Structures are given as structure tokens and as C-alpha cells.
Amino acid sequence: MKTALIVAKALERWDRRDIYEREDAVAQARFEEWVAQQWWQRKADAYSKIIEALWHLVESHGGYVGYVHDGPLPEWIDKRIEHNWIQNHFDLKLSADVGAFVISRDASQALQEYVRSTPLDLIEIDDLAFAEQGYKASLVCLEVVRKEALRDLGIPEDQKGRVTRLERGK
Fold first, then answer.
1. Residues 61/131, Cβ–Cβ less than 8 Å
2. Which architecture does CATH list for 41-153?
3. In the chain, what are the domain boundaries?
4. Which residue from 95, 94, 18, 88 is spatially nearest to 54, judged by alpha carbons?
5. What is the mean pLDDT of each run of 10 residues along the chain (170 residues)?
6. So what's the pLDDT on residue 144?
7. Helix, strand, coil shares, percent, the chain, to 5
């Protein structure tokens, strides 16, 4: 009888240990899922900032080319556009440097190539040439970063490049 009691208590301790191990495994899995979600959110935020800055550059470069063909711009508009170019250019440079730890290598390389291909010294020499070159380069960079963001974040797209339904947990 005493042996049966000892065996029963031992089995009960084993059951508790097994429960604790399962609880630890569940807690570890939940923690890892939370970390993955936080990392995904950080990537999504980085890509959003980069894509927004690129879009502003596409708009300002394209707008400037259109305005200049209509005639000379007032100086205050010209200065404001230049200020926006410089600000967005530095934002992208920072994103290319710092974001390389968060975004994909290809997206970071596309940003670095954009920064190299649109030197800010050209603003002082020829605004129109800078705008035309910047427009082309920012469009190319925007498309590369967009595709890399979708791939890196695991967001599917169809054959036409449109984002399809995002399935939770994938």
C-alpha cells in the first residue's frame, strides 16, 4: 500500500512537471510570436516612411518639370520645392543607412543607388536637369522598394502587381 502511494505521488509530480514544461513552451511560443509581430510592424513602418518620401519626390520632381515648361516659377515656390527635395533626399539617405538593419538588402541598395544618382550639387547647377533626373530615379527606386516591401513583409500580389488579400498569420 505504501509503495502504491509513493508511486502515485511520483506520478503526480511528473504530471505537474509535464504541465509546467508545456506552459513554458506555450509562453515561449507566444513570446516569439509577439517578437515577430513587433519586428514585422517595425519593417512595415520603415517601408511606409520610405515609400511616402519617394512618392513626395516623384510628385515634386514631376510637378517641377511641368511647372517649368509652363514658364518661370516665382522664387518663393522654387525655394520651397528645393527645400522639399533636400529634406526628402536626406530622409531617404537616413533610411538607406539606418533602414538597412530593418529593410531588405535589395531595398537598401535601391535607396543607396537613388541617393548616388541624384547628387544635391546638381540643384545649384541646373534645377530642371535635377528634376528630370530625380523624377526618373525616384520612379525606379519607388517601384523596387515597393516590390521589396511586399516580398519582405509577405504580402502577396497578383500577376498585374496588385496587392491581393492578406491572410492572417502568413
1. yes
2. Up-down Bundle (1.20)
3. 41-153
4. 88
5. 64 64 75 86 88 86 74 77 81 76 87 81 69 85 90 78 55
6. 92
7. 85, 0, 15
